[in-house]
Design a protein that fits this description.
The protein is built from six helices and 26 strands.
């Protein structure tokens, strides 16, 4: 039977490539790493989506004398702000251009961006100088989980740093420089050799191999590492090839205002690197479509403290002290 074709994810903010890399500083000293490294701590909360067991990590940052809410999403190529936020800060959007100088279009509309400086919280200042794509507030808030958000911090911000994602303590720590040494990783509790991740050329997002049932090549596919997704997905093609049977419950995902039906099934195990999760529910689309793509979501990631080293192309996994389910309310 032929192998399943791979398709990279395209979220509402996945339009072209980033044309202006971000520059950032994070001024707080981390006592657990060598003095050359600094950190910026982002406590996050999660809100339940009405009618669905689904959560997104939301952080509060201030600028322009006001507080703003951002979702943290490694599955989004670009960072976003609403037109309402841009207007409140007195920013005039500019037309986003491809590296070839052509206007970027999304769903038939020309994409604009603003530059936002001075984002901070009680832990310090996060100087991010680069492009935030401007999105209509109603369009952003129509996306499940983003009904209260003013923007999204996507991979073009997050990948500037080393990122420590900790669901147990409900916080994300951003490190500079973004690649820690082996000794520094051990001081943070990461003793493993890491799992290889690769960056897609078309959308700049990061993927790793997910193995279902066993580690044979036929049972693997590249999965998007997506902190904006509650569930882990495999393709409809792989689900059919493995003979997986749905539990009969159907939910949905909404992307670009299009609702797509999702099925779920209990599987014996799946693994990422040497980390194996047993007897878990995995999801897949009813039809073999590009979205949702194979995805490593927070139902897996929340079982670990996860250190992203984008410079070295690795993620490191350390078991969480307490199992946290993104489908359960958080304090």
């Amino acid at each position: 039977m032929p192998f399943c074709a791979q398709a990279h994810a395209q979220t509402p903010s996945n339009v072209g490539k980033a044309t202006n890399p971000f520059h950032a500083t994070a001024p707080n000293q981390n006592d657990n790493v060598e003095p050359a490294y600094t950190r910026f701590i982002l406590p996050f909360t999660s809100l339940k989506i009405e009618g669905r067991d689904s959560y997104l990590a939301l952080v509060t940052l201030s600028t322009g004398g006001r507080k703003w809410t951002f979702a943290l999403d490694t599955g989004s190529t670009f960072s976003l702000v609403t037109d309402e936020m841009a207007n409140a800060l007195g920013l005039v959007p500019k037309t986003a251009l491809t590296p070839e100088g052509k206007a970027v279009n999304l769903d038939g509309h020309r994409t604009t961006f603003v530059t936002i400086e001075g984002l901070h919280n009680e832990n310090g200042k996060l100087n991010v100088n680069g492009q935030f794509n401007v999105i209509n507030k109603n369009s952003l808030n129509a996306i499940p989980g983003l009904g209260t958000a003013d923007g999204v911090l996507g991979i073009n911000v997050l990948s500037v740093f080393g990122v420590l994602w900790d669901d147990v303590h409900h916080q994300v720590t951003l490190f500079l420089p973004r690649s820690l040494s082996e000794n520094q990783r051990k001081l943070l509790g990461f003793a493993d050799q890491g799992v290889t991740i690769t960056q897609a050329a078309d959308n700049q997002l990061w993927y790793t191999n997910l193995s279902v049932l066993d580690k044979s090549f036929a049972n693997q596919e590249a999965a998007l590492i997506d902190t904006g997704s509650d569930h882990t997905y495999i393709s409809n093609c792989l689900a059919n090839r493995l003979g997986l049977k749905s539990d009969g419950k159907k939910t949905y995902e909404v992307t670009a205002n299009v609702k797509r039906d999702i099925l779920h099934t209990l599987i014996r195990s799946f693994s990422v690197g040497d980390s194996v999760v047993e007897n878990v529910v995995i999801s897949y689309p009813v039809q073999d479509i590009a979205w949702p793509p194979p995805t490593l979501g927070r139902d897996f990631l929340s079982r670990y403290r996860v250190l992203f080293d984008f410079q070295q192309g690795k993620i490191y996994l350390a078991p969480a002290m307490t199992l946290v389910s993104p489908t359960q309310p958080k304090p």
